[in-house]
Known about the structure:
The chain is an alpha/beta fold. It is built from twelve helices and eight strands. Helices cover 48% and strands 13% of the residues. Helix 2 (45-53) crosses helix 12 (225-246) and helix 11 (216-223) packs across helix 12. The radius of gyration is 17 Å and the shape is globular. The two termini are 32 Å apart.
Amino acid sequence: MTVIPSLNVPLLGVAVTPLNRAELLAHIRDAVQEGRQMLVAGHNLHSVYLWYSLPEFRDFYDRAGAVVVDGMPLLALLRIGQRARLRTEHRIGSTDWLDGLADLEGIQRVTLLGGTPAASTAVLRHLRSLGGDVAWQGIPGDPWRAEDVDEVAEEIRAHDPQVLLIGMGMPLQERIADQLAARLDVPVIATVGGALDQLGGTQSLAPRRLGTMGLEWAWRLATDPRRLAGRYLLEPMKLAALLMWRA
């Protein structure tokens, strides 16, 4: 299992691999070409909270080969605590790199798992419009039934992807990634959250400049307050309490 050297995030106590878009895509390309298995995940405050709250979630992240920085608070802590020369490009969400697979050398087959049937169709349409020689497979995952995992594994096996992208939300997507990894031989498995819905246009995608300013959370909260209020307004306080209790 490929593991890229990581940095520890001060105060939060989690490890990340601060890569930019080109570096992450290069690692994915190399893992595929060399036949190495690699898990790709992303850390933000939500995932840090789950890392402390759920042992199986923590285990998944600790085994991941690349855990990119998917949140400006984490990047800011790295810059200060590690005195690392990191730029805003080292904060990358899944929507920042996923479409780069379209013309990545050696990538010929990619499977997308997640979203409603309409969302799955929409993101496939978007990715195929990018050109390139990738054969994209889309499998809806909403609603997800645990008993469907074997059937889904067979669908994926028939496509024989080099990269499997799972966009089901945390911590469900990580659980499914482990279940499928035990059933399949896919070189790269990446958990990508809402990226499939966002790239397909079925979920609002924040302007990129807001991400570099650390305000993407505000955009997402304003566009979907019922679903995200707890994550953005209450969870940071719960995380702070957890960290204080463990100190």
